[in-house]
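Hypothesis: this fold can be encoded by more than one sequence.
Test: take the structure tokens below, design a sequence, compare later.
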């Protein structure tokens, strides 16, 4: 039974990867621009509300360094980092099968190729806990369940932060073609639902207030 479920998830993951690969480059470029704009607007709106409430704390945004077929976030990360109103963090793999850690990033931060050919900060700066986590998302449900790439790093990371009672908002960043509404998909017991899902077509699950 477990093997059948694993085979089904692997097949579904391959299907989603093929859908992503088949997207028109112009469509993905425009879609990524819309994602960045919506993220920027949501965060700016939250900052205004926090100021009105006299909440002046700086926020840590844990983003991710987009791979070629993922929605490109890098221009937004540069903008956020240059504004100095928040700190941008990027995930680092410290040890296999362990939660990710998040280290500060600026446009001047040296980068290295980490596991799975993902760029990460090439520094020994202390890891910091995020207030907002942008999560790369291959497949998603409207309830906030996420299908990733099968390595489990984000599930372990989100679960570890919850166990530490650290408050944060998790936002999945996905292409709309990853919608699992019409697929035979059931989340696993260890999956950690996301607070929101953002796609190139809009919010599949609206973001909460900070």
């Amino acid at each position: 039974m477990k093997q059948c479920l694993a085979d089904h998830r692997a097949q579904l993951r391959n299907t989603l990867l093929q859908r992503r690969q088949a997207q028109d480059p112009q469509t993905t470029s425009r879609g990524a621009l819309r994602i960045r704009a919506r993220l920027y607007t949501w965060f700016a709106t939250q900052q205004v509300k926090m100021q009105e409430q006299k909440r002046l704390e700086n926020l840590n945004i844990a983003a991710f360094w987009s791979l070629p077929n993922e929605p490109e976030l890098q221009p937004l990360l540069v903008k956020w980092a240059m504004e100095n109103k928040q700190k941008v963090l990027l995930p680092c793999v410290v040890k296999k099968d362990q939660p990710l850690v998040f280290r500060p990033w600026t446009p001047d931060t040296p980068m290295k190729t980490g596991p799975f050919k993902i760029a990460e900060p090439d520094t020994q700066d202390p890891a910091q806990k995020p207030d907002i986590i942008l999560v790369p998302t291959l497949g998603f449900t409207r309830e906030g369940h996420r299908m990733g790439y099968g390595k489990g790093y984000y599930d372990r990371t989100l679960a570890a932060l919850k166990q530490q009672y650290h408050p944060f908002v998790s936002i999945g960043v996905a292409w709309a073609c990853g919608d699992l509404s019409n697929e035979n998909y059931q989340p696993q017991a260890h999956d950690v639902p996301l607070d929101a899902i953002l796609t190139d077509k809009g919010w599949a699950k609206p973001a909460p207030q900070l």
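The mean pLDDT is 93. The chain has one domain: 2-205.
Hypothesis status: open.
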